[in-house]
Automatic annotation (TrEMBL):
This is GMP synthase (Glutamine-hydrolysing). Gene3D superfamilies: 3.40.50.880. Pfam families: GATase. InterPro entries: ChyE-like, Class_I_gatase-like, GATASE. Residues 46-192 form the Glutamine amidotransferase domain. GO terms for cellular component: cytosol. It comes from the Bacteria. It comes from Geodermatophilus africanus.
């Protein structure tokens, strides 16, 4: 069986390894079947996407809506590499699921508007499926309303014309969309559990998501969350395309 590919961009080893472990747990894959490339570490090598059953894109510290002059050379390179990759993914309608940073990346690629209008603090929020979401095979078995973990500075404010809205929430209208039949993106983190979000809170306490002095209070609050449904998306993605 062909492996899946995880594209990651977190420069902090603790956060990067914790994210990889989270994707392994949620997908049920082992390291042989979920191959990771850390985009921040080196240029993306030439890929034959026919070698992979599907592509996953994790979150990271970059924001698509950052002013161009504020982006590092690494961020500019990663954005260019992902845009080139998405050209092929979308043209061929290859299985793809981007989480958090993925929705900004795919949203911009498809002509949507991504900005800081609908950022959400690190928290657990109720996400509601649209009619299209309830009919989508990737969301089979997911309740109409479910809790998910979020934490993002930017979001998709205007849905791309090519996209179908699958899920929404009160403070972030675009929580999930699909392009074509097989290309997906979520604003919430389908891979995250409570332990994982606590790790990221500690790693990114100085990254501007919250005042560092409030970290322990935030951890206590998010530790009360019970999140069971979002990981179904990743398990279903693997079952459907693997």
């Amino acid at each position: 069986m062909r492996p899946f590919l995880l594209l990651a961009s977190r420069p902090e080893d603790e956060a990067a390894d914790d994210e990889y472990a989270a994707f392994l747990r949620a997908t049920g894959l082992d390291e042989r079947r979920l191959r990771r490339i850390r985009l921040e570490a080196a240029p993306l090598p030439e890929l034959d996407l026919d070698d992979y059953a599907g592509v996953l894109l994790g979150g990271g510290p970059f924001n698509s809506s950052d002013p161009a002059e504020d982006k590092s050379a690494v961020q500019h390179r990663i954005e260019a590499e992902l845009s080139h990759l998405l050209d092929e993914v979308v043209a061929r309608d290859l299985p793809f699921l981007g989480a958090c940073y993925g929705i900004g990346t795919l949203g911009v690629h498809q002509g949507g508007v991504v900005d800081r209008t609908h950022g959400e603090p690190v928290s657990c929020v109720p996400v509601t499926l649209t009619d299209a979401g309830r009919a989508d095979p990737l969301l089979a078995g997911v309740p109409d309303v479910f809790d998910a973990l979020v934490g993002h500075k930017e979001a998709c404010r205007v849905l791309p014309r090519s996209a179908v809205l699958l899920a929404t929430s009160a403070d972030c209208p675009v929580q999930m969309f699909r392009v074509g039949r097989n290309v997906y993106a979520t604003q919430f983190h389908p891979e995250l559990d409570v332990a994982g979000v606590v790790t990221r809170v500690r790693v990114y306490q100085h990254a501007g998501y919250f005042p560092p002095a409030e970290m322990e209070e935030l951890i206590a609050r998010v530790s009360q969350a019970v999140v069971t449904e979002p990981s179904r998306l990743l398990a279903t993605f693997v079952a459907r395309y693997g």
